[in-house]
Amino acid sequence: MIVTVTPNTAIDRTLFVPSFKLNQTIRASRVAIGMGGKAADASWVLGELGIPSLALGFAAGQTGQQMEAMLQSRGVTTDFVWVQGETRINTLIVCEDGSGQSTITVEMLTVGPADVEALLARYRTALAEGATCVVMGGSVPPHASPSIYTQMIQEAVERGIPVVFDASGAALRAGLAGGPTFIKPNRTELEEIVGHPISSIETAYRAACDIQQSFGTSLVVTLGEEGALAVLPDRAYRIPPLQVEVSSTAGAGDGVLAGLAAVLSRGRPLEDGLRLGFAAAGAILMTPATADCRRADVERLVPLVELIPYGEGG
Known about the structure:
alpha/beta; eleven-stranded mixed sheet; four-stranded mixed sheet; 10 helices; 17 strands
């Protein structure tokens, strides 16, 4: 069973507007509701693909109940720790004139020490009862320390369970210290880790190699219009972007997490996970809701994903 851990659960509400200007009433042309929170997003994608998972994390209030019901509707097993406050509603604004999109997020969960211990207890039970892969990531709510990622990742790794991790800032640094199997930074997050600009695929490759050698962690670095770079222990691949019609970019990277988890949990080649993950990412780009996709689109895109050997072995 794939286990996902989302300390800061959310629902994403995406508003599509013709353009955005301050001090004006803007009428949205459409609204889409999707999953939020990186690891829960992965469960959402896995559910669409017919792959079972167990979703853990903190949740609260009516939004939390809606988020849980959405996951369960796709066959995801849930075991959230219910806390005070409210699961977040992130608001995404997508400009249909092509000028871009932005996300507005507000912290709403209230988590105490007893809640953290309750989550750790459920997580340890999941590890002991047959977890085959763990996906975790995203921000942590106020009053919860990012060190929870270090601890949870170490506990899985000590049991020989692969971990796919995705976060930013202090949470990313804490998780990396735990030695996850994979991390999935974007360009900005990679720059945060290495402390210098990433100006090209080659500089991304060199930085990823340094991280891989220092932490024993494989990387998938997403580079926007330049595609992505996968740096594994003994090989690397450049992955060109799929040519699809983009509705929203929100949650596309979480499709990569789902693809990697699917193959790591079954002991299949990592290349299969990269193909599945980037096909899921491409399918997510085509839908208006965060992390949403259609299984038929994913299956159609899998054979179109290119893995081009890169670097010293390429």
